[in-house]
Amino acid sequence: MAASISDTLLAWYDTHARDLPWRARPGAPPTDPYRVWLSEVMLQQTTVAAVKPYFQAFTERWPTVRDLAAAPEEDVMAAWAGLGYYSRARNLVKASRAVAAMGGFPSSETELRDLPGLGAYTAAAVAAIAFGKRAVVVDANVERVVSRLFAIEEPLPSSRKIIRERTDEITPENRAGDFAQAMMDLGATICTSRDPKCLLCPLSASCEGRKNGDPARYPVKAPKKAKPVRKGQAYWITREDHVWLVRRVGTGMLGGMRALPDDGWSAKGDGHKNAPTAGPWRDLGLVRHTFTHFALELAVCETQATSDPLDEGEWWPLDRLDEAGLPTLFAKAARLALA
DNA sequence: TAATCGTGGCT
DNA sequence: TAGCCAAGATT
Questions:
Q1: Which chain B nucleotides are covered by protein, judged by CB under 7 A?
Q2: Looking at the C1' of nucleotide C2, which residue has the nearest alpha carbon?
């Protein structure tokens, strides 16, 4: 009988696993759940290259989940600045405090799933990788690999159910964590979105997509919606080598992050609010920034203030602006102002 | 179910 | 270069 898909893939993983900072060697004892959890949250919709320096900085500054739980939320938000999807940072703080209160991470998938910021993927990944549990781990890599392996014609996202069933069928009882990481490594290095390296693939012999002749057309995807372009204004208000920064409220766009005052632009429409101080204003130029679901043209203007603006905020020293934790949009605006 | 929520790298 | 894409979660 031919070796199973999982046996073949695990054998490949034993010699081809990527060496990543948050990962134990194949077959080695499971690594610290804190590091697994932290890396998995950082890696949500985010590339390995982007995560590495943040993972390094976080684990150096907060070596354990208790250290992170004791940190002021604003410190964590500022440390997350630039990585995107800031609800992850807010949930990271909440989850770390819940875990610290429990005395450590729960080991079951269902209990992990109850922590803020852990959805189906992350709960399964932590249970499998950190605790050695059998769990069905489905991320975008697995979706692509499985769609090709079984030549699934149903388009994403409606194909998720069948993809999950197929993944369940090929997930082994033992080494489910290594299997998950092997699938992700395969997707990241061999079974890539464009130009898959089928000649190097350990699973090519059993790949229905390859037998069909065009594996790259999987996974089939539903067409995407067009992105609207919104216009907004940001205000660079200085006074004696300081700039006026605000903190964005709530759970919406860039929620909880430090920012320049703006005119209330959003995904729904252009900005409309009045400037936070009287002018005179001088135009500094335009910042173009594309979010997931819309593009923004942010005009930046400056003035020198003689008193505090109306909005709540703080005077931030210009020579420590890199410590303010501005999201990339406003970091671009600041760069324009300081150019 | 579908919309919301960032950013940087790649082609 | 303009679009595509990445270890998704939440509502």
A1: 1-9, 11
A2: A290
pLDDT at A112 over 90: yes
Q: Which CATH architecture has domain A5-217?
A: Orthogonal Bundle (1.10)
Q: Who's near A324: CB < 8 A, 6+ residues apart? A: A78, A245, A258, A316
| Nucleotide with the nearest C1' to A332 CA | B7
pTM beyond 0.85, yes or no = yes
Show me where the domains of chain A are located.
5-217, 229-338
Strands A295-304 and A314-317: unpaired
To which CATH superfamily is domain A229-338 assigned? Nucleoside Triphosphate Pyrophosphohydrolase (3.90.79.10)
User: Does strand B come within 7 Å of the CB of A120?
Assistant: no
Alpha-carbon distances, residue A301 vs A304, A315, A316 (angstroms): 11, 17, 18
Environment class of A249 (CB within 10 Å of its CB; exposed 0-12, middle 13-18, buried 19+): exposed
pLDDT in tens, A290-312: 999 999 999 999 999 999 998 89
Alpha-carbon distance of A240 to A238, in angstroms, equals 7
Q: Can you give the distance from the CA of residue A88 to the C1' of nucleotide C4 in angstroms? A: 23
The per-residue pLDDT for range A141-166, each reduced to its tens digit, is 999 999 999 999 999 999 999 999 99
